[in-house]
Design goal:
Blueprint (H helix, E strand, L loop, with lengths): L1 E6 L19 H9 L4 E7 L35 E5 L18 H7 L4 E7 L1 H14 L3 E10 L7 H12 L2 E3 L9
Parallel strand pairs: 1-2, 1-4, 2-3, 4-5, 5-6
Helix pairs in contact: 3-4
């Protein structure tokens, strides 16, 4: 089985949010168009407490139960079967969706007999990259849908370096148009 994993497509990472990725809105229709091609659609959310060591590195963002922590309003969230919350502890960064505290993502994928994970979302050089690397470590064939991820690009080479690191680790970088129906 193949699973689509939407990483942190939350308001605070989109234009107007506390920690926006430029042009993040552009990936929403791409992701919506992919959802019907997968039997299993999952998502992660940053779900930070109001105070956390994570905010020593980053502006406060995705504080649980705030509008910034909600999914982008254009995302067809009704098609998401399960959401994994990460970064929930005051001492936890929670970059990877595999660090979720409301369930073990790797175990969940195995229980659903998933062997391929297709990753989309925000942001390429942090949460997307860490999720992809952990997916590979967990033994899943892992794809990054290039036109369905977006980086913050704090430094000019951050996104290309993240993509190269993911590819070197074994991830396959593909375009959304190349994905056929999963079944």
């Amino acid at each position: 089985m193949k699973a689509l994993l939407i990483v942190d497509l939350q308001n605070d990472f989109c234009p107007g949010g506390a920690l926006p990725a430029p042009d993040a809105d552009r990936i929403v229709p791409v992701i919506n168009g992919l959802m019907d091609k997968f039997d299993l659609v999952l998502a992660s959310k940053d779900w930070h407490p109001a105070t956390t060591v994570h905010f020593e590195k980053w502006p406060a963002h995705c504080v649980r139960e705030t509008p910034g922590a909600e999914f982008h309003p254009g995302l067809d969230a009704a098609k998401i079967q399960k959401v994994f919350f990460k970064g929930t502890d005051d001492k936890d960064d929670g970059y990877s969706a595999f660090e979720a505290t409301n369930g073990n993502l790797a175990d969940y994928l195995r229980k659903k007999e998933v062997d391929e994970v297709y990753v989309t979302g925000l942001v390429t050089e942090y949460c997307v990259k860490q999720t992809v690397l952990e997916s590979l470590r967990q033994g899943f064939k892992t794809f990054v849908i290039e036109d369905a991820v977006q980086g913050i690009s704090a430094h000019p080479n951050d996104v290309p370096l993240a993509k190269a690191e993911m590819e070197k680790a074994g991830a396959l970088i593909i375009k959304a148009a190349k994905i056929k129906t999963a079944s």
